[in-house]
Amino acid sequence: MPQKTKHTPMMEQYFNIKADYEDAFLFYRLGDFYEMFYDDAIKASQILELTLTSRNKNADDPIPMCGIPHHAAAGYIDTLIDKGYKVALCEQVEDPRETKGMVKREVVQLITPGTVMASKGLSAKENNYLSAIVWDAQTNHFGFSYADLSTGELKAAVLATPDSVVNEASAIQTKEIILGSEIPDSLKEILAQRLNVVFSTQENELVSSELSYLVANIDSDLTKAASIKLLTYLSETQKRSLGHLQQVQEYQPADYLKMDHYSKFNLELAQSIRTGKKQGTLLWLLDETKTAMGGRLLKQWLDRPLIDEKAIVKRQNMVQSLLDSFFERADIQENLTKVYDLERLAGRIAFGSVNGRDLIQLKTSLNQVPVVEQLVRGIDQGQWTGLLEDLDPVADVADLIERAINEEAPLTITEGSVIKNGYNEQLDVYREAMTNGKQWLAELEAKEREATGIKTLKIGFNRVFGYFIEVSKGQINNVPEGRYERKQTLSNAERFITPELKETERLILEAEEKSKGLEYQLFIQVRDQIKSAISRIQVLAHGIATVDVLQSFATVSEKYGYVRPTLTSQSRDLELIEGRHPVVEKVMGHQEYVPNSVELPKGTDIMLITGPNMSGKSTYMRQLALTVIMAQMGCFVPAEKANMPIFDQIFTRIGASDDLISGQSTFMVEMMEANEALRHATPQSLILFDEIGRGTATYDGMALAEAIIHYIHRHVHAKTLFSTHYHELTMLENSLDNLINCHVGAVEKDGEVVFLHKMLAGPADKSYGIHVAKLAGLPTELLTQASQILNALENGTHLSEEDLSVEVSQLDLFAGQDQTNNDVICDLNALDLTTMTPLEALNALNDLQKKMTK
Ligand code: ADP
Ligand code: MG
Predict the structure, then answer these.
(1) Ligand 1 within 6 A of 736 CB?
(2) Which atom of ligand 1 is closest in space to residue 615's alpha carbon?
(3) Ligand 1 within 6 A of 613 CB?
């Protein structure tokens, strides 16, 4: 940036302010525009497609500049925030008309991805989180705190490892992280690599008394420090009331079913791997919520399934009672659709950014509550205790809005028409004056027509001249001398004013102005009065959200025929009869889906699954994981019958999806995921290893896979589903007591292999590779030879070059063909089928075939 010295006072001011907001776009208010200068201007003009101009065009060093009309700023700000930038709004904080010299300017708000409040920048069913992390070098622990400024939610936890910091931050999809300077660079790097976030810093920590009570209830110094950092940042960037922030709730990740971010990603809980969207995920399946708050709470429950048996059963009981009462449930749903986003409305009330229409929405929402409460009470047989108390309709607020706010209030709060007649006497007086004045004008018009005999005489109004009497040019001679004072001449008419008209004009305009001012004041009073009820509105919002999620569970469970699972933390018996993968079933239809049981009684820890490609191994494993998650959220599950232990953690290594975000190799990710599981799983955990070892050379892959199974069997004892293409591993059943084999069935029909997608006991048949090759349409001769080679291998003999050429000549396959074909035979002979996956075999055959047709 150029030297400050030789600039105008205005640019001096600009530099001084900009110095404090280096990492933000500074929107510098100049009249009706926000201007940006220098690099800000150059960058913003590209991102926002604005025209880049310059200040001091003719000077030696013109200043790059671009501007936005202030009334259109919101859209531009949204765009910048959406792309991960920050915007500092710098306003004139003095009235320019009353100031000599430079108008004082200040940044009144720093808008960042983690602090957006405007409803346009937020998606209704998603939270928008800002987090803060602090580190204690002595204990090597982290304090993690996060808030949704739009809803007022504030939570914090102590985390023991960088991994768990990454897990928590990614689970809540935080948009922005505030880091203290003590945070090790290594953690910062991991966070930057794994998460798509903006970083911010906050050093001095002075929580205002308004905010200090929010952290008053915290026990741990670390969570307190993180929360204070977060609150300080919020108050310093937002510079206004944050009265809707709720007291910090401390939580322990260990109180919930633990899943690392790999698993959540792999299982497609809330985000499709392919598209990154909600469509096709478990969240998409479960979401029949009717309110924005319910949608957000559902996602929170999905991120943190329960492990406490009592708490799960409580949710199940409520779902059951909703399932048992079809009509009440339909009515509850119906009423919920009329409930607006109470949490965010409460936030905007505290923030001071609500208008009359918002308050009408608040009233409409509150008015639904008594009905919902009655309906819930009607089906309650003790299951809803605790929740019913939260459904207080905050009637005083609804009543206040009903009395004060116009049903058709406009979007602005300064232009009048917000407050109802009859709410305030003085306002009624002004309004009467306005109405009377207008009435009086009509009478005056009639009177003047009569007096002058000018039938076309009329009374009008414009902003510049106020009220006037207009007479057309042709009638001008009839205008009475003296009483009419000329005000304006138009091409075909003259406009006059009379002393009487002037006086009435004064009364009307004064009344109008005063009433607008008074309306504004009254509105602020109403808003402040509601402010004092914010915490009650928030309790209600949470109650409504809970009812909404539970009705969503009931609706989904009924729609897809789910059963109530029996869960217990006492037992380790897993019995899932005729289970289905809920999302695949929804997509392909119930009729098409082949149900499968998972039975792992006590004493059986590991299920080794073999079967050809595309037979349904991965689907089977995911099915179990999703069922466990649904069950521990309190929802019913896709099965005929389900008896399940309560799992403490789920570990997965599923699918061949590269970790696209971090760009790490598949095999490295595979091993990292395996490591997580082997080190942290307990006998109460669930491990899903899908074709582990596949990402490396055959022998060391198989060796690792076998060693991993031994290790789990010996040390971990977690319930484990292990799918593999290493057929050799099925032999482990003979030596490992707690391992069973199963495979996906296939039948031959008219010489073709048909996968049944059905799990059967015992190991799979090995010759699927050739069947698959046959399905792919490879030449019969080639397949025959492959079968012969396989037979020989199975008998422990290797076909020699000679044997093979005999076989080949018998087949008369390549008679009379050239060298290429001989090469192909040699290649074919060299294939080691015992160590190939069906897919590798298929690829090899495909290569050979290509070689021949060349
Ligand atoms: P694998 O992991 O054995 O290669 P997948 O689990 O990926 O197989 O399944 C392959 C395809 O088979 C899936 O995309 C799905 O369409 C279908 N499929 C899997 N399981 C079932 C089932 N139980 N019923 C019906 N179709 C299934
Ligand atoms: Mg698979």
Answers:
(1) no
(2) 3
(3) yes
Residue position matching structure tokens 């990154």: 276
Q: Domain residues for 598?
A: 566-772
What is the CA(619)–ligand 2 centre distance, in A?
7
Angstrom CA distances, 739 to 473, 575, 722, stand at 106, 16, 10
User: What value does the mean pLDDT take over residues 554-568?
Assistant: 97
Task: Please state whether beta strands 176-179 and 198-201 pair in parallel, antiparallel, or not at all (unpaired).
Answer: parallel
Q: Which of 656, 480, 645 is nearest to 565 (CA)?
A: 645
pLDDT tens-place string over residues 607-640: 999 887 788 899 999 999 999 999 999 999 999 9
Residues 6+ apart with CB under 8 A from 443: none
- 143, 251 in Cβ contact below 8 A? no
Mean per-residue pLDDT, 340-363? 93
> Is 260 inside a domain boundary?
no
Let me know if residue 274 belongs to a domain.
no
Measured from the CB, is residue 756 less than 6 Å from ligand 1? no
Q: Which 3 state secondary structure label does DSSP give 257?
A: coil
| 618 known member of a binding site | yes
pLDDT at 694 over 50: yes
The answer to whether residue 337 sits within a structural domain is yes
> Which amino acid residue places its CA nearest to atom 9 of ligand 1?
616
Q: Residue 654: inside a domain, yes or no?
A: yes
Q: How far is the CA of 593 from the centre of ligand 1 (A)?
A: 9
pLDDT of 794-819, one tens digit each? 666 666 666 655 444 444 444 445 55
> Which residues is 641 bridged to in the sheet?
577
pLDDT, tens only, 636-671 = 999 999 999 999 999 998 755 444 444 456 778 788
Do 134 and 245 share a structural domain? yes
24 and 88 within one domain: yes
616 is in an annotated binding site: yes
Asked if residue 334 and residue 196 are part of one domain, the reply reads no
**Taking residues 397-425, what's their average pLDDT?**
92
169 band by pLDDT with thresholds 50, 70 and 90: very high
Mean pLDDT of the chain: 88
Cα dist. 523→393, 423, 536, 538 in Å?
22, 11, 20, 21
Which atom in ligand 1 lies closest to the alpha carbon of residue 621?
6
Find out whether the beta carbon of 619 lies less than 6 Å from any atom of ligand 1. yes
596 CB near ligand 1 (under 6 Å) = yes
